[in-house]
Amino acid sequence: MVNLESSSSYALDHATASRDLVFETAEETTADRLALVSIHDVMPETLAKVTELLLMCRQSAVKRMTLLVVPGKEWAETDIAQLKAWADSGIQLAGHGWVHHCDRIQGLYHRLHSKLISRDVAEHLALDEAGIQRLLDNCADWFSKHQLPVPELYVPPAWALGSISLNALRECPFQMVETLAGVIDVNQQRLLRLPLTGYEADTLFRAVSVSSFNRINWLWSKTSGRPIRVSIHPNDHQLKLKRSLQRDLDRPINAIGYTSLRSLSR
Ligand SMILES: [Zn+2]
């Protein structure tokens, strides 16, 4: 059973927009597929594209959104104000790494991960446990320092958590951590496995492999009834899977926030 959060509209407000764009939400129907819709890599340099994607989601009547924010970038005051406006309008913010980049790729696992999935963004894989803990602390501190709501959710870049134990994770400031496999409830030390779709495909190889991955995951969501994670990256609406993204947003999905996962019976 899922206890759905109350439906609310959320507003878009971008520095370049001349007026606020307020979401008109569709009625929730319990027959719809539950979905967790997130936009990754929210940074000063991606805010314009994030705004376009939020508009796209609004036009597809997606009611709940989560933005994955990368704190260790050059954030201007106007950028922070934009994040605050989004948060005030009901959009959830989540922590997403620190700089979203790693200079050194070490070890076979990291090299393979980098080649196949993450390129050079999986910054946790270059850190030891103490380094990952420091990163998580810094990430949470950044939100409170800027008077932004401290997120409950943390998503490591490329979903690569690296070498940190569940016990060590318990000391981190976040209640939920998302990995490739699903979402970890940090206090319960429990992983809820969840299907996942992505659309970041700038080559034909990626387009074909990500499409197959998505098909399997929609099927898993359908047969299991588990919420599907629809993960969007800032350029996805201009890349090879842009039509798949539009089609998936237009499906009869009922977008929920990550906190609703706590009410899911397992
Ligand atoms: Zn990312």
Automatic annotation (TrEMBL):
GO biological process: carbohydrate metabolic process
Top-level division of the source organism's lineage: Bacteria
InterPro entries referenced in this protein's UniProt entry, alphabetically: DUF2334, Glyco_hydro/deAcase_b/a-brl
CDD domains, per database record: CE4_u10
Protein name listed in UniProt: Polysaccharide deacetylase
Organism: Stieleria bergensis
Lineage of producing organism: Bacteria, Pseudomonadati, Planctomycetota, Planctomycetia, Pirellulales
